[in-house]
Amino acid sequence: xxxxxxxxxxxxxxxxxxxxxxxxxxxxxxxxxxxxxxxxxxxxxxxxxxxxxxxxxxxxxxxxxxxxxxxxxxxxxxxxxxxxxxxxxxxxxxxxxxxxxxxxxxxxxxxxxxxxxxxxxxxxxxxxxxxxxxxxxxxxxxxxxxxxxxxxxxxxxxxxxxxxxxxxxxxxxxxxxxxxxxxxxxxxxxxxxxxxxxxxxxxxxxxxxxxxxxxxxxxxxxxxxxxxxxxxxxxxxxxxxxxxxxxxxxxxxxxxxxxxxxxxxxxxxxxxxxxxxxxxxxxxxxxxxxxxxxxxxxxxxxxxxxx
Length: 307
Hints:
Blueprint: E1 11-14, H1 24-51, H2 58-75, H3 78-87, E2 91-93, H4 94-127, H5 132-135, H6 138-164, E3 173-174, H7 181-186, H8 193-226, H9 231-262, H10 268-292, H11 295-305
Parallel strand pairs: 1-3
Antiparallel strand pairs: 1-2
Helix pairs in contact: 1-2, 1-3, 1-10, 1-11, 2-4, 2-10, 4-6, 4-8, 4-9, 6-8, 8-9, 9-10
């Protein structure tokens, strides 16, 4: 194909995690299992929260939203990857690639924002317990979730519209298992400087901003916990945010590890393998982290499954 705008009939090739034919059945079984575990685990969290009136609180409202987003997040990439392995095809249409890119960025952003809101919820609960129900009212919680979706949707739309203006050459191979924005932009023949500026500005604003909010919330939480005189009181206060802290550490630790590790290197295949951690493993582990470390969720799951 000559350099020029890609039409809707054009295709990208997703090279996946491995091009070795003998490894494809193993990858299919592995990722199918991880996908089913993720969907089932997060679905159980949503059903447990919705079925137990005792869990109709801001913290569990945000947790059920996080589980919903995690299910959607992993569903934007893994089903297509499994289909390509099963059909022995690496192709994804241009429209399909843009669609996958849009929803991936959308759910990634919402995931990030909800984790930030959950940190604020824990901050209010521990630092201002007497005013918790007044501050974290249903209107504010709904507004937080709405703003998270709208902000992420606008960012995703801007990024994808800018990709539409790019021209691509004959090499349309993406060394990844999904249409990752950075990898697609790197395939363009035209000037990608505006895309790079918007991309890194978005990462700084929509990634660094929420991270700063989380760090500020936990700095206040730590100060409040240190002021509690009894060891039992400190443990009880910390236990209410331990699960969230574990999920945040996993999400940001793996995500930042992938992107910081890819700076200045061209080993895209290694980056694709590492990105499995935050695109697949993190959504899969979240239900286990919350159910294993949270007695309320455990009891709700037992009651729900015991029906």
